[in-house]
Amino acid sequence: xxxxxxxxxxxxxxxxxxxxxxxxxxxxxxxxxxxxxxxxxxxxxxxxxxxxxxxxxxxxxxxxxxxxxxxxxxxxxxxxxxxxxxxxxxxxxxxxxxxxxxxxxxxxxxxxxxxxxxxxxxxxxxxxxxxxxxxxxxxxxxxxxxxxxxxxxxxxxxxxxxxxxxxxxxxxxxxxxxxxxxxxxxxxxxxxxxxxxxxxxxxxxxxxxxxxxxxxxxxxxxxxxxxxxxxxxxxxxxxxxxxxxxxxxxxxxxxxxxx
Length: 259
Ligand code: ADP
Ligand code: MG
Description:
Keywords: ATP-binding, Nucleotide-binding, Transport. GO terms for molecular function: ATP binding; ATP hydrolysis activity. One of its GO terms (biological process) is quaternary ammonium group transport. It comes from Parapontixanthobacter aurantiacus. This is ATP-binding cassette domain-containing protein. It is built from ten helices and ten strands. A six-stranded mixed beta sheet has the order 6-7-8-3-9-10. Strand 1 (11-20) and strand 2 form a beta hairpin. The protein is of the alpha/beta class. It has a domain at 11-85 and 160-258: P-loop containing nucleotide triphosphate hydrolases (Rossmann fold), CATH 3.40.50. The relative contact order is 0.16. It binds adenosine-5'-diphosphate and magnesium ion. Magnesium ion binds next to helix 1.
């Protein structure tokens, strides 16, 4: 039993279902995420990860069930409030090409009628380890990794209580992806964030998250700590996903043993 005055989870899905025509993209999902957790939502393409994530900021409205942000039903929260309270990092980076880096980072506050000062812009760029001189650059003058750092800075501009990331590093080369993943995890710890990261990459989930939630055909089929998944828990679907990086590690170990 929970304490009567325990704070509600930062994020909670209660029996959320969403259909697209004949397809049940999310099927009766219930999941609660406590303050400070870094949760990876893992599953094959089409398993419903993005749909579930998008119900939080109401980019997608559930057919049934509810989504609670710190105990409040998001259905009753205006989009401007949701934008302010939730940082969102998109899969396709999604910077506005005709706006400078500084303007991109400040878009959230600007939509709320505020201006992001030069000092705060500098602070956010430093947070994601970008040279503050990049504030004036246009997105097409940045590498993919730098652009996604700007995407993370933008998501943090409003000091969100919840950070949602949909395949945030998926489009990056492996070295950039690892470096940015570690950076985001360090920021999560330092800023005391609560984070949900969608990924199809089980290795990334195991290495970065405190908790790994596995989806299959719209349902949650495992919800474990990385160590438990590595110890073989979580069921067949989770274990099939864990087998991929494990087999790669074994093959690499064999290769280097032969060298
Ligand atoms: P994932 O992010 O895990 O790859 P999605 O949440 O994007 O999965 O999709 C789950 C299922 O819902 C898939 O079968 C997908 O084709 C379907 N789907 C998602 N969005 C739409 C949409 N806007 N219209 C129709 N079908 C959709
Ligand atoms: Mg997706």
